[in-house]
Amino acid sequence: MTEAKPQRAFGSAHLAVKPVSGRTRIATLYQEGCAKIRLPDTDDQSLEAVMINTSGGLTGGDEMRWRFDVADDCRAQVTTQACERIYKASAGIADVASALKVGDRASLAWLPQETILFEGSALGRTLTVDLAETSRALIVEPVVFGRKAMGEDIQHCSFRDRWRIRREGKLIHAEDFAIGPDTATMLGRPALFGGMRIMATVLLLDANAERHLEPSRKIIGTKGGVSFWSGKLLARLIDGDAYSLRKRLVPLIELLNEKAGVPKVWSI
User: Fold this and answer.
1) 237 and which of 108, 117, 165, 224 could share a cystine (Cβ 3.0–4.6 Å)?
2) Which tens digits make up the pLDDT trace of 225-246?
3) In angstroms, rounded to a whole number, what is the distance separating the alpha carbons of residues 160 and 46?
4) What are the b/e assignments for 7-17, b being 16+ CB within 10 Å?
5) 179 lies in a domain?
6) Sign (positive/negative) of CA torsion 268, 177, 99, 63?
7) Range of the domain at 51
């Protein structure tokens, strides 16, 4: 008899928004599998989207596909209902791909909560962003290599993260981050994490981003750094636990995310 293969999770969701009488409203909403999008009420003219993975986490062979299109003159932010958990993989990797498109004079804040990697997990993630000439985007991605409060000591996992960001079709920012499978050794290297287990990348794409450079440095302190060049403000933060990182990451987001601040679900 042929051994049955374990069922794998698949989810795909697409949200497009448009301007309606000065407010940002739904143009298209598509959901499939374990990918869901919810739209809580906001206090202003913008739109907030909450991504939900109803499978409760990801493991090897699972796939998630997210797509968000923000039309001209719209303001939106995207977050997650909770931290995304990447569990031990018996075979294959969890594959997550997100595609963002932002129109002229539009603004998008990509603010998922932490991705938590467990012992033996494997995650491959891609993020593609297409910006118009006058659009603004804030991208934040925090990653946790085992939770200190839960006594999780990560020895082996695999994580690969690929970013490609274009403005008017021209590549303006590219990142390829990879760690593992000997994660513990790499986390301990002074030139990488120096024994820390939490990191966050914060990227602001805005012609006026340079004005936030010095205030960002004061917030980040010695556990990280920030630079500005070519209309991009890029910050890296590291810390020993997620709570300590959030004490700096939240005020940094509040500084960079205009008047929108941090999504309400971050405090739930």
Assistant:
1) 224
2) 999 999 999 999 999 888 899 9
3) 32
4) eebbbbbbbbb
5) yes
6) negative
7) 13-267
* Interstrand relation of 107-111 and 136-145 (parallel, antiparallel or unpaired): parallel
Give the pLDDT confidence of 188-223 residue by residue, as tens digits: 888 777 778 899 999 999 989 999 999 999 999 999
DSSP string, 196-207: --EEEEEEEE-T
Where would I find the H helices in 103-259? 183-188, 213-220, 242-256
Tokens found for residue 244 = 């300590």
Task: Look at the block and give the residue holding tokens 């969890």.
Answer: 94
Which residue bears the tokens 């946790």? 144
The residue length of the chain stands at 268
Other CB atoms within 10 A of residue 53 CB: 23
Q: 218: buried, middle or exposed (CB in 10 Å: 19+, 13-18, 0-12)?
A: exposed
Q: Is 224 a member of any domain?
A: yes
Query: pLDDT value at position 192?
Result: 79
Token pair belonging to 79: 């977050």
Residues 6 or more apart in contact with residue 221 via CB below 8 angstroms: 248
Least confident of 67-81, 115-129, 140-154, 164-178: 140-154
Residue 149 has pLDDT above 80, yes or no: no
Residue 58, token pair as written in the block: 């990801």
Work out how many domains the chain is built from and give that number: 1
Residue 8 lies in a domain: no
**From start to end of 39-83, where are the E strands?**
47-53, 63-70, 75-80
221 belongs to a structural domain: yes
